[in-house]
Amino acid sequence: MRIITLGPKGTFSHEAVLGYCQQAEVIFKPTVWDVFEGTASGEGELGMVPIENSITGSVGFTLDALLHFNLSIKAETVLPIKHNLAGWGEVNQIKVVYAHPQTHAQCTTFLRTRLCGVEIIETSSNAKSAEMLAQQTSPEHAAIVPTIAAQIYNLKLLVRNIQDSKFNVTRFVVIGQEDSPERTGRDKTSLVIYPVADRPGILCEMLEEFKIRNINLTKIESRPSGKLGDYIFYIDCEGHRQDQHLAEALQKIEAKAAFLKILGSYPKMC
């Protein structure tokens, strides 16, 4: 099976794909938009993209692409984000560290306490950090890398799990051209709502349709529609859209909305 994801090889996206389907033929793309385009064109049967991180929040590029492309969310998976310090010598020999800016920000406690004063060279990706270290032989150079990147580039791990938060996880969604799978009894549905008009209480009225049917919302987030002060809403709720109570709620909401798009119903992992 061909699965498209963010590259290059050795990224957390790469690790997430292999965790979802170990035998996958992985196709790498430079941007989220490119992953969606490749999946929509049939270059890969599926795509996998990050949608939410427990620390930094939602991935706006993914939310925007879900609205734009005619693709369905078919599954979700959750990956613990674990950063490791790789190098060729001992920790006390290190003077230069290669790190992606976001990775650097998530490992500040370790860097401040164990590597205070070292030079941080920012890279374009975690995989690039690993690649740059692989080109060095000096014990003064190190990099912060995922385990998969260390394996690909044959790096020596000096310290594992140096991230500030032990609860740092990223949620990925699997996208495809085909419709969502059948009900499992433990499902989640994702949708986008654009209200008919910006008037007091319109969002509350729509959300009330979930409440009166005892449907639990696991996420609600607003995104700019492209007009200043105008927003669309992304919602995740428990249940499958074929469940009677959820189907009724969606029908009522659609009557009150200018636009409603069901992104998919799929087995719930978180």
Give a structural overview.
By secondary structure, the protein is α/β, with parallel strands linked by helices. The protein folds into three domains: 2-81 and 168-176, 3-Layer(aba) Sandwich (D-Maltodextrin-Binding Protein, domain 2); 84-159, Periplasmic binding protein-like II (D-Maltodextrin-Binding Protein, domain 2), CATH 3.40.190.10; 187-267, Alpha-Beta Plaits. It is 29% helix and 34% strand. It contains nine helices and 15 strands. The chain has helices at 12-20, 32-41, 60-68, 101-105, 108-114, 126-134, 147-152, 202-211, 244-256; strands at 2-6, 25-29, 46-53, 57-58, 72-80, 84-87, 96-99, 119-122, 141-145, 157-159, 169-176, 187-195, 217-224, 231-238, 257-267. Strands 1, 2, 3, 4, 5 and 11 form a six-stranded mixed beta sheet that branches. Strand 13 and strand 14 form a beta hairpin. Helix 8 runs antiparallel to helix 9 (244-256). It is elongated and about 65 Å long. The two termini are 25 Å apart. The model has no long low-confidence stretch (mean pLDDT 95).
